[in-house]
Amino acid sequence: MDDILLQILNGLDKGGAYALIALGLTIIFGTLGVVNFAHGALFMLGAFCAVAVKSLLGFEKVVLDPTKLTAWGTPVEIRTPYIEAWFGDFGTQMLNFSVPVSIIIAIPVMLLVGIIMERGLIRHFYKRPHAEQILVTFGLAIVLQEIVKSQFGANPIPQPAPEIAKGMVDFGAMIGLQAGGVVYPAWRLIYFLFSLLVIGAVFSFLQFTTFGMVVRAGMADRETVGLLGIDIDRRFTIVFGIAAVVAGLAGVMYTPILSPDYHMGMDFLVLSFVVVVVGGMGSLPGAVVAGFLLGIVQSFASMNEVKAIIPGIDQIIIYLIAVVILLVRPRGLMGRKGVMEQ
Amino acid sequence: MSKFTISRRGLLKSTAIAGVGIAAPTILTSRAWGYTNEPTGGTVTFGFNVPQTGAYADEGADELRAYQLAVEHINGEGDGGMLNTFSSKALRGNGVNGKKVVFVTGDTQTKSDAARASAKRMIEKDGAVMITGGSSSGVAIAVQGLCQDAGVIFMAGLTHSNDTTGKDKRANGFRHFFNTEMSGAALGPVLEKEFGKDRVAYHLTADYTWGWSQEGSIKKYSEQLGWQTQAAVRTPLGAGDFSQYITPVLNSGADVLVLNHYGRDMVNSLTQAVQFGLRDKQVNGKDFAIVVPLYSRLMAQGAGENVKGIYGSTNWHWSLQDEGSKAFVSSFGKKYGFPPSQAAHTTYCQALLYADAAQRAGTFRPSGVGAAMEGFKFDGLGNGPTEYRADDHQCFKDVLVVKGKENPTSKFDVLEVVEITPRAQVEYPASLLGGELGPYNDGA
Q: Are A258 and B305 within 8 A, CB to CB?
């Protein structure tokens, strides 16, 4: 029982990342009809926002100590972050909380990145075939990751969670089970709750604001909305920016779980597309449901008991489910008729 | 009585046969019987095949820095580095066999097919007489096979699988780096001393040649101690998030987690294992332990503070205090501003060892260079007295057992050397790992 609960929790935090990336992908596909293969790169850029913020906060004052020499004969460098020198304990806490602080920076940065991407490149491909959209966005993803690699190197860069969130939570005891049976990292639970919060915010924005209403109308019938005198293109540009923000935030908060490197976006990209297809192209609830579902299924497939029956199932389960769902429900779990069918 | 007569045609034929017969020994030993990319001008070309893109690009960049330094030293530039401490004094700082060393580079991308393509290009188009480098056993084995077929020497870079000088060994291939068998033999006694004989181990293993090899050797040596193996779970290469493989460890009853992962996988799996509280956990009344059999300082930096107190093995570390290591660290540090990695060290050594063997052999012919390297005993290159064993072309030397440092003084000061395991303890018969060297191929 404990093991099953642990795998469910594991699937939920993993699924949180899948759902957030897939949500952004679906928003872009639903509004602009663009298959955005650069969406994984946006997740990666978000993660590197956190790396950049930590680097900026940790910018160091370097003093050479001529009394001590390195192994290669140069004076030893004594490094002190300026923020600690200037603000003392407050500065130390800022460094400690660099990941949450990065959220504040990542929102405008990712919004800007999304808008520039859409205005500068993607909009020229709206009327092109999906194959060309895939090629150009995939190319863009490679360019973005190479830029990141040239600046930050190829190795993963550690991004620790704040001290307060580094420990374990006795989840079993919280729900009345035996203490110590289901303990889970606090940051992963925070990530799961954070993903729910962002998903809730995106749905509320689309459901309960005038802007969201126009966007939903545009998704249903772009031409009619245009005929009503509404500049739907401008709104869709902002929607692209919002999708970039969602992917970026998923990346920022994921950095303590997975030390960011330039390739992390590609690792999530394929999985996220499977999530979108399983959930149903263009369906926002479908993307969220499929994200969590596939996260949980992937976790269960990695259990030794399951692998003992079907060896290697953990490596193919997601694709297997995609095949089965597409055979049974060709439009995905919650796909809409007419989307991606012409 | 028969009469001996000879025709003009018969005389010509006999003369030609006799001529060939007399000249044959000379032809066979002369330069006319060439070998692949025999250098004819004033230079000789080395081919440095390292990952310049992909996940191991930083390690590849460090290898390339070391090679450039080695070429400088061989050609008599710079401070001479480990040439000053190397026991062989054949190289005199004027190149090799009177020829200045130049080099070309290729990008392995840490993909076997790409690595073979770049090595092929360097051999066929650039005239490389020797190929060296790499950061993966799969790549090393693939390129070693190519070099054997092409008739050039392959001096392996960072490759740790037993297979490179075991079942996949080739006469034209040589490895300075240690292997998983040696890691297991070195780690075994230290693990026993630190954690005792009554332990239950759980392995997470990268699902490819090196991972299987590493898992096998650690299981072998830990079970010899009396440890039990609870499970050995294969994980896909580049899984990213290993949490679904780590959660089953929590309540498995195991009290040791062995992470047979390297590079990015090691960084991620170790970070996540620590995140799941395994480093601070108590199981069976004992402190839970995590072991990373193959450490790389360059990669360990990526795991940050998560490496603290975690045991593993490494081929070399910049904090060693022997004269060779100090000379290399000084030379490398002055040129680049930071200490070299173990990848840089092994590749630097390989370039020097090849050059030295060619100089002693007086030729770049693979069979000649190989013969000079086989059974060659040397010192002064940072690992104590070392031998290039003739039977499998594997270097035998001391192995380092290291631990993640509790109080690092800089970002490079990640590991501390716990024990220098003497060569005798990690030596094994060549027959243990199987394979056949076969004959040298001089090519051409």
A: no
